[in-house]
Amino acid sequence: MEPCRIRRALPADLGDILSIEDDSFDPAIRESPDTFRERMEVFPAGFVILETPEGSAGYLCSELWDLSGPPTPSDFALGHSARDRHSPRGRTLYVSSYGIRKAFRGRGLGRALFRDFLERAPADFPFDEILLLVSRTWSEARRIYEAEGFRQVLTVPGFFRFSDGSSADGEVLRRPRVRDSTGTPSAPMMKDKELP
Ligand SMILES: CC(C)(COP(=O)(O)OP(=O)(O)OC[C@H]1O[C@@H](n2cnc3c(N)ncnc32)[C@H](O)[C@@H]1OP(=O)(O)O)[C@@H](O)C(=O)NCCC(=O)NCCS
């Protein structure tokens, strides 16, 4: 794989993030520029860009949630306010969005970004578990999550409503921060990675 690195996202990255978002999601479920700006302001350590020699290839953003029990459907809403939801002392890392530009897919970069973010995150902030929400129809993303040891803990019926009128259930996946002993230990895949 070509040398690449992950680094914190900056306001100047917003244009790239939006074009990756356009490449990655149906128009009806894309996040707004304000949502991304807010996420960067509220939890900068949880918002990263994957840079390659050919330019920005992907992004991943996240929040810390303070959950008092297992997640419920009401915990999930598209475009929810990170400012309202993020809790610096929360112990649940919620990966709110993640995508790779189409031209860069199929080279292992998506898996590398996801894995490397989760590997280095504990050095930046503490958390006990990771949650995310995926559509049943997003098979590439699901392959990554399953291989990384995530298991489904909740279904949110009809959560995703697409622009062609179709809908799909949201599947909430969870993994403890440290994978159980049956998981294959993961190794860093980036040749060069750093956060400022
Ligand atoms: C999910 C995503 C980030 C993966 O990025 P990527 O760089 O293509 O991923 P990788 O190259 O690391 O490949 C990951 C897996 O997807 C599979 N894959 C990649 N491209 C594929 C394709 N065109 N068709 C089928 N499978 C494909 C790979 O085979 C690999 O699985 P494997 O290693 O078990 O064989 C990317 O597809 C994407 O941005 N999708 C749209 C947004 C999205 O779904 N985000 C997740 C929201 S929860």
Secondary structure topology:
Layout: E1 5-8, H1 14-24, H2 33-42, E2 47-52, E3 55-65, H3 82-85, E4 92-100, H4 109-124, E5 129-135, H5 139-147, E6 151-161, E7 167-176
Parallel strand pairs: 4-5
Antiparallel strand pairs: 1-2, 2-3, 3-4, 5-7, 6-7
Bound molecules: coenzyme A (COA).
The site of coenzyme A has 19 residues, from strand 4, helix 4, strand 5 and helix 5.
Concise structural overview:
The chain is of the alpha+beta class and 196 residues long. The protein has a domain at 5-128: Aminopeptidase (3-Layer(aba) Sandwich), CATH 3.40.630.30.
What descriptors fit this protein?
single chain, 196 residues, alpha+beta, Aminopeptidase, 7-stranded mixed beta sheet, 7 strands, 26% helix, 30% strand, disordered C terminus, binds coenzyme A
